[in-house]
Amino acid sequence: xxxxxxxxxxxxxxxxxxxxxxxFLEKVMSEREVNRYRSFRKQEDRTRALFSYGxxxxxxxxxxxxxxxxxxxxxxxxxxxxxxxxPRVVGPDEQPIELSVSHSGKWVVLGISLLHPFxxxxxxxxRDSDLDGMARMSLSEAEQAAWATLSPDQRIRGFYRYxxxxxxxxxxxxxxxxxSLKQVQVSPADQAPKLLSWQDRPEMVGKITCYPLALDExxxxxxxxxxxxxxxxxxxxxxxxxxxxxxxxxxGLRGV
Length: 256
Description:
The protein has 256 residues and is of the alpha+beta class. It has helices at residues 31-39, 43-64, 131-138, 141-148, 152-173, 238-250, and strands at 10-17, 73-74, 88-89, 98-104, 107-113, 118-124, 184-186, 195-198, 208-212, 219-226, 231-236. A hairpin with a 2-residue loop joins strand 4 and strand 5 (107-113). Helix 1 (31-39) packs antiparallel against helix 2. The protein starts with 9 loop residues before the first strand and ends in a 6-residue tail after the last helix.
């Protein structure tokens, strides 16, 4: 029996802080994932990758009632084929499983949907970034004008609201960074998240629903869903790690 059954009416997210590196996750990762994870020079980047690859496999193993190392996951980019695209489950099972992963600052967030394509994006609020320059690169003229009316403090958080909304949307569609974020226009930062227009894909307006995602006061986040769901459910990913750590260290991977 699997540990849980997911309600297809919701988007399901697991958050985990990168305070420790659970090295036992290497046991469930593919050779490609391990090599990618070990290629990062900074410890915080390695820890984020460890969670992104390993914890996702644990979640999918629980959902599919299988061994985590047997779950086939690809991140092949539709444009170039390199392993930096949206994660997807590969296999004969026709059950639709939509995935999305985001990490920034101290958080990693992993998401699963059983019905609707979606994207999640989180960003740590960095007060030292060149927000004016980033805004010129990512905000439309109308968005820049609205953003400029905010107070200095509001502009900092406001920019990251714009950014995470746009990133979540292009993740949901699978376009990712192949799309200029300037052409994806979203609601002002002081309003509920919503896609207002998309220059090259106007048919997506009205089809995408956005939800704010709150992790802590230092992080902005957004979930974008193609279609209508009843909401977003957020869980503590550390509970999953506790369950699997005992199984993987005491019984061995093939004994679960």
